[in-house]
Amino acid sequence: MKKMVRRVIRLFIGLFLFAVGIVFTINANLGLSPWDVFHQGISHLTGITMGQASIVVGIILVLLDAVLGERLGWGTLCNMLFIGLFMDFLMLNHLIPIYEGIIPSVIMMLLGMAVIGVASYFYIGAALGSGPRDGLMIALTKMTHKSVRFIRNAIEISALIVGYLLGGFVGIGTLIMALVLGNIIQLSFTVLKFDINSIEHRFIDEDLKLLKVKLLKRKSPDIFLE
Q1: Is 83 within 8 Å of 19 (Cβ atoms)?
Q2: DSSP string computed for 155-166
Q3: pLDDT class for 222, splitting at 50, 70, 90?
Q4: pTM for this one?
Q5: Contacts of 48 (CB under 8 A, 6+ apart)
Q6: Which residues contact 217 (CB under 8 A, 6 or more apart)?
Q7: Where are the domains of the chain?
Q8: How would DSSP label each residue in 49-93?
Q9: Angular region, 33: left φ>0, alpha ψ -120 to 50, beta rest
Q10: Of 75, 94, 125, 180, which one has the fewest beta carbons inside 10 Å?
Q11: Concatenated DSSP letters for the chain?
C-alpha cells in the first residue's frame, strides 16, 4: 500500500511539473510545441481554455488508444485530466510570468523544456501507464510496423498543421522544441540515472482482475481453500 501511495505521489509531482514546463514554453512567446499549437487552435475555435482543449484531446486519444488495443493505466487517465487542469490553474492565476525580450524568452523556453524533462522522469517512473499521446504512438507503431521516430514525427506534424490552420501560434520556438525537446528529456534521464526500459507499468485491467479475485474470495471463500 505504501509503495502504491509513493507511486501516486510521484505521478502527480510529474504531472504538475509537466504542466509547469508547458506553461513556461507557452509564456516564452516564441512558438508552441506541435501539440500545444493544436490545443491553442482548438481553444481559438471553440472558446475553451488551452487546458480544457488538452483534456478534450486527451479523452479522444484515450478512447482511440483503447479501440486500437493499447492497455491503459491509471496514470494514462490522470495525464488526460490533470495536466490540463494544472495548466489552467497556472495560466488563469498568472502564476508564471510572460517575458517579451528575446533573451529572457529563450531562457524561459529552455527552462520549460528542462522542467518537462524532469517531469517525464517522475511521471514515467511512477509506472502507471503511458500518456494518451504516447499510447497512440505505441499503438500506431505496432499497427504499421514503422519506426517510433517516423510515427511520432507524423503525429506531431499532423497536430501542428491542423493546429496552425485553426489559428495556433507557430514560431521559432516550435522548431526549437521539435528539434531539442527529445534530447533534453534523454539528457534528464541520463543525469538522473533513469533507465526507461526497466519500467514495468501497472495497468487498469490488472487491477480490475485483482479486484475481481478479491470479490470472489469474499463471496465464495471455499473455492480458494485447495
Answers
A1: yes
A2: HHHHHHHHHHHT
A3: low
A4: 0.89
A5: 42, 56
A6: 223, 224
A7: 2-224
A8: -HHHHHHHHHHHHHHHHHHTT----HHHHHHHHHHHHHHHHHHHT
A9: beta
A10: 94
A11: -HHHHHHHHHHHHHHHHHHHHHHHHHHTTS---HHHHHHHHHHHHH---HHHHHHHHHHHHHHHHHHTT----HHHHHHHHHHHHHHHHHHHTT-S----SHHHHHHHHHHHHHHHHHHHHHHHHT-S---HHHHHHHHHHHHH---HHHHHHHHHHHHHHHHHHTT----HHHHHHHHHHHHHHHHHHHHTT--GGG-----HHHHHHHHHHHHHHHH-GGGG--
Sequence length of the chain is 226
At 17-36, the pLDDT tens digits run: 999 999 999 999 999 999 99
Question: How confident is the model over 150-182, as pLDDT tens digits?
Answer: 888 899 999 999 999 999 999 999 998 888 888
Neighbours of 91 (CB within 10 A): 19
How big is the CA angle at 180 (ends 141 and 176), to the nearest 5 degrees? 110
pLDDT, tens digit (0-9, with 9 covering 90-100), for 40-78:
999 999 999 999 999 999 999 999 999 998 889 999 999
Burial of 100 (0-12, 13-18, 19+ CB in 10 A): exposed
Specify the residue for cell string 500506431.
Answer: 140
- Residue where the block lists cell 473455492: 223
